[in-house]
Design a protein that fits this description.
338 residues; five-stranded mixed beta sheet; binds 5'-O-[(R)-(carboxyoxy)(hydroxy)phosphoryl]adenosine
């Protein structure tokens, strides 16, 4: 019996999870409301909140799992990429706990964790696991990538954004409209009541499978400026249509490249991961592609879309099987590719 404790602290969620033999026993996350007033994550405040949360969150995860510390086989933790101060809280905690229990530590790449979230199994609702190779669209606040997943530890980024990420673009456009942070959930909610064809924003023409979202952001900004000159209350009157049109453009950009990659590589198993995979329009687009192109799609449960420790623990489970442990002196890293 292999029992892994996963710890995630790369950005503004403190999370701990316990997985036993591939099955999730608990997944506890403390989100940080402290950043809302600032319109974005404030790194120093995030580190302090992690410090406050980490002990109770790990405690809760063990309690809910019905597992004692002594039963743990190893501790998996997010080593990067992320905010350095935030990462250090989780990394130091994991090191201290692993040393005191005399068990191995497993370092996890946060992005790899997002992709492998599709392998988290729940006893109550078992879901089909993607077979290798599969494609994964990884879309979050910091990344927009098409990943060719050949094995749990063999991933190739075949396309990625050359500037802004999809989530970042949505967040910035939402900020331009004065709709608060993070913009994703607000835009999603408003988009459901709007007309996606009301406005047309420019789409990039980038070769290959790469993405670009900064042009869309600029096009949104300039259009908005013109409309506001004609009607100062333009946003208030049209926010649903604006949200729906923006969402549709982002989803179209993402799906066009993904569709091309799937066709070229002849892969029909396609997954989506990361915070933006919570988006209703994107989920609908995946279902539509499954119907039209015969894809088998893998859409994560909402709780595994944003940052969570369950995905860190499942990645730890894979690495544990290969005895792929990390030394005590392994430092955190803020930036790295998959
Ligand atoms: O993976 P994630 O939690 O962490 C970061 O990379 O920061 O992704 C966060 C991103 C944010 O840009 C947020 O606005 C976006 O995911 N997001 C959404 C939705 N929920 C979260 N974007 C669109 N629709 C949503 N429902």
């Amino acid at each position: 019996m292999i029992t892994i404790l996963g710890i995630e602290s790369s950005c503004d969620d403190t999370s701990a999870a316990v997985i036993r033999d591939g099955y999730l026993l608990s997944n506890v996350t403390a989100s940080q409301a402290v950043h809302e007033a600032y319109g974005g994550v404030v790194p120093e405040l995030a580190s302090r909140a992690h410090e406050k949360n980490i002990v109770p969150v790990v405690d809760q995860a063990l309690k809910r799992a019905g597992v004692t510390k002594e039963e743990l086989s190893a501790i998996a933790f997010t080593r990067g990429p992320g905010l350095m101060g935030s990462l250090l809280v989780g990394v130091s905690f994991a090191k201290g706990l692993a040393a005191s229990l005399g068990i191995p530590m497993i370092d996890v790449n946060h992005l790899q964790g997002h992709v492998l979230a599709h392998f988290i199994q729940e006893q109550q609702s078992p879901s089909p696991l993607p077979p290798f190779p599969f494609l994964c669209l990884l879309v979050s606040g910091g990344n927009s990538q098409i990943v060719l997943v050949k094995a749990y530890n063999k991933m190739e980024i075949i396309g990625q954004t050359i500037d802004d990420a999809a989530g970042e673009c949505i967040d910035k456009c939402s900020k331009l409209m004065g709709l608060g942070y993070p913009g994703g959930p607000v835009i999603d909610r408003l988009a459901r009541q709007g007309n996606p064809d009301a406005y047309h924003f420019s789409k990039p023409a980038i070769p290959g499978y790469d993405y670009s979202f900064s042009g869309l952001k600029t096009s949104f900004l300039y259009n908005l400026r013109d409309w506001l000159q004609e009607d100062p209350d333009f946003i208030e009157h049209h926010k649903e249509d604006l949200a729906a049109s923006l969402e549709k453009t982002v989803v179209d950009i993402l799906m066009n490249k993904l569709r091309r990659a799937a066709k070229d590589l002849k892969i029909k198993h396609v997954a989506v991961a990361g915070g933006v995979s919570a988006n209703t329009g994107l989920r609908e687009a995946f279902k539509e592609h499954a119907r039209r192109y015969g894809w088998t799609i893998y859409i994560p449960k909402f709780s595994y879309t944003t940052d969570n420790a369950a995905m860190i623990a499942i990645t730890g489970m894979f690495k544990y099987a290969d005895k792929d442990f990390c030394p005590m002196e392994a430092p955190a890293y803020s930036r790295v590719a998959l």
